[in-house]
Amino acid sequence: MYVVITGTSRGIGLELCRQALQAGETVCAIARDPEASPELTGLKSNAGDKLKLVPADLDQPEAVER
Predict the structure, then answer these.
(1) Which of 33, 36, 50, 65 is least enclosed, having the fewest CB within 10 Å?
(2) Would you say 6 and 34 are in contact if contact means Cβ atoms under 8 Å apart?
């Protein structure tokens, strides 16, 4: 399954991302600045191709279009 999770740089979004990866899912992690989150980039280094980091601020209409 392919899972899309927003707000993954910290808090609930980050934990959902961890849990989905542990369950073997492929995750698209959306955050305003994913590279600024050491926890998220750490997950990426361990998950490899199972985790795709997508920078986007979903409050901005142009980000949603991208």
Answers:
(1) 65
(2) no
